[in-house]
Amino acid sequence: MAAVRTSSEIGFNRVAIIAVLVVTIIFLAPIYWIASTAFKPRNLATTIPPTVVFQPEISPFVKLFTKRSQMRSPPSPEEYAAAPWWERVVFDGGEKIVRDGKGQVQWSGYPSRFLNSLIIAITSTVLAVGMGTFTAYGFSRFKVKGEADLLFFILSTRMLPPVVVAIPMFLMYRAVGLNDSHVGLIILYTAFNLSFSVWLMKGFMDEIPKEYEEAALVDGYTRMEAFFKIVLPEAATGIAATAVFCFITAWNEYAFALIMTNRRAQTAPPFIPSQVGSGLPDWTVIAAGTFLFLLPVAIFTFLLRNHLLRGMSFGAIRK
Amino acid sequence: MAHIQLKNISKTFGNHTALTGLDLDIADGEFFVLLGETGAGKTTTLRLIAGLEKPSEGQVFIDGVDVADWGAAERDVALVLQQYSLYPRYTVRENLEFPLKPKIRRLPDAEIKDRVDRAARTLRIEHLLDRKTDRLSGGEMQRVSIGRAIVRKPRVFLMDEPLSALDAKLREALRTELKNLQMQLGATFLFVTHDQIEAMSMGDKVGVLNHGRIVQTGTPHEIYNNPRDTYVASFVGSPPMNLIDGRLVNGRAVMAPLNFELPFSGGAKASGATDGRPLVFGVRPEDVYLESGAPVEARVHDVENHGVEKILTLRVGDAMLRATVPARTDVAIEQAVRFAWNPDKVVLFDKGSGVSLRHAG
């Protein structure tokens, strides 16, 4: 650290701050666009030039969450009994939420899609990061026969665009009854994220000195105990970083969700654009759906931000 | 407390041979120092005893029991490393408690507290107990490391260059402390170092390791005064022993190719030192002295002033000899001096094998 700053350093700092501001504005512009559209009345959503000052309203969210009876009839008792609990909550709640006198208003498909997204993304992230951590530890600490080949093989699953295998996967899934199921998508996303998780975690594991575990072994702990007590806390930063990336991938995945699911296990990404098709697109509703969809990733990343920053620079700092 | 025995240990890592036919016997309560250069196999030996590595060949005995099938946890040894031996997320107290809490020998809480406090008092780290380990200095960290070893009352203390990363002053202080601690505990210590001063000053016994083989085992005195071969002679001692090629002719040491002669009186002791046989004469720098009437002339090549003494580098022909002389000796670089040696202290080595004639046969 230089205690005395020269004028050129101060100048550089100013330029850097301006550059960061510009980049931040560029990155935040679409998010602002979506957030503002989500609160606009429908007639102001597509004005040219864009309306910046307006009376915000929540009608896009009401429209996003509800559906009038003309669109879909209420569930039959059998359908109701067969539905999972969260859909039943939606059916029940739909009776209460809004009534316009003429027809019934129900929950739309969005809440259940959103819940599907949460279930599938969280479960597959936990699985991918969990398995990845153990696998990476194994690769990092033990002599594995053909280690380089195995690691290459693991990475090779990422060497083609996943959509290439979508059709065969769809056929296989249909044959075993996994299409339009939560388990099906969870397996798919876990498999897809696992290679990434193994590689990233291996880097983090390699950085943790093996002396820590050896000290624990000598102190009378089993390797498993040493792993949980010493290695895992040390790897927390790496686990957080890996988890954020896996979560974002699973949360945003579109192509497989579109092909493999249609109703029961459908996630939010294929659902939101499907609303465009019926009649004139209501951009405010789509923006509202997208805005809510952004929140979990934003919250998750915000919670882990300290770990993330350290995780990003982890490899760069030498001991 | 334990008696450690290594029998015919070999260890290979792939194509690399770390240890060959190693035999070691460490008596109960002994402070044994394993001395060797980097890569000589010291750490491997230690890890074999700790159970962190398995020998490719040979057996390890602790108190006469073959521990081949014992894991590191069961061997009940303590390991102190040069660095990374403290858990970074824990406080000093948690670090000290950690070895007392494994399932296989979990102690009652009162006992844990008692032992931690006692170890902290012994090592004078009581004021650090609630500090996180990343806020400790190097010396404090090493103290805590040693503390982690002593709270357990293990059968053996294994120390892998615990002082090497510290600065000189602290190293000296901890050296004395460690030695005192060992005497207090009466425990078996295996201490690994590349620093021959540490080895000489701390060890009850020293084992010199070279390229995976034990070259010589003995008390520091034996190692210093009676090195088994030219490797030990040149490795132990600072500055090392002077080694000069020559022959014995009629009870006099005749140097060739250096072409000077000195008296030799150890003829009777050096069995087999027959006249004319190619030899290497070894003499410690402190047994080389300057005298106006001495038989050999040399020039002062370099003077190192160490305060209590001066270490001179003398040039004879194109060879260099070291001599330790009192600090008051007044010499200048390139000055012509005359020197002799203490003929009783000269060690003879076979020129071909490098083995001391006292040890051969």
Uncertain spans of chain B: none
Cα(first) to Cα(last) distance of chain B is: 36 Å
What name does the CATH topology of the largest domain in chain B carry?
A: Rossmann fold
Terminal CA distance of chain A: 19 Å
Main sheet attributes: strand count, strand direction, barrel closure of chain A: 2 strands, antiparallel
Instruction: Indicate the overall shape of chain B.
Output: elongated
Order of helices and strands of chain A: HHEHHEHHHHHHHHHHH
Assigned CATH superfamily of the largest domain in chain A:
MetI-like
- Main β-sheet, spatial strand arrangement of chain B: 6-7-8-3-9-10
What is the CATH-assigned architecture of the largest domain in chain A? Orthogonal Bundle
Summarize the main sheet of chain B: 6 strands, mixed
Helix content of chain A: 55-70%
CATH C-level class of the largest domain in chain B is: Alpha Beta
Keywords (chain A): Cell membrane, Membrane, Transmembrane, Transmembrane helix, Transport
Protein name (chain A): Carbohydrate ABC transporter membrane protein 2, CUT1 family
Subcellular location (chain A): Cell membrane
Organism (chain A): Mesorhizobium qingshengii
Pick out its properties.
heterodimer, A: 319 residues, mainly alpha, MetI-like fold, 68% helix, B: 361 residues, alpha+beta, Rossmann fold, OB fold (Dihydrolipoamide Acetyltransferase, E2P), 2 domains, six-stranded mixed beta sheet, elongated, ABC-type transporter activity (chain B), translocase (chain B)
Give a written overview of the molecule.
The complex is a heterodimer of chains A (319) and B (361). Chain A has 319 residues and is mainly α. Chain A has three domains: 7-38; 61-107, no CATH class; 110-316, MetI-like fold (Orthogonal Bundle), CATH 1.10.3720. Chain A has 15 helices and two strands. Chain A has helices spanning 7-38, 59-65, 77-82, 85-97, 110-141, 147-156, 166-176, 182-207, 211-218, 223-234, 236-252, 255-260, 268-274, 283-303, 305-312, and strands at residues 66-68, 105-107. In chain A, strands 1-2 form a two-stranded antiparallel sheet. The radius of gyration of chain A is 25 Å and the shape is globular. The model of chain A is unreliable at 96-103 and 314-319 (pLDDT under 50). Chain B has two domains: 4-225, P-loop containing nucleotide triphosphate hydrolases (Rossmann fold, 3-Layer(aba) Sandwich); 242-350, OB fold (Dihydrolipoamide Acetyltransferase, E2P) (Beta Barrel), CATH 2.40.50.140. Chain B contains nine helices and 20 strands. In chain B, strand 7, helix 6 and strand 8 (188-193) form a beta-alpha-beta unit. In chain B, helix 4 crosses helix 5. Classes of the chains: A mainly alpha (319), B alpha+beta (361). Chain A binds chain B through residues 209, 211-212, 214-222, 225, 230, 233-234, and chain B through 50-52, 71-73, 75-79, 81, 83-85, 87-89, 98-99, 102-105, 148, 152.
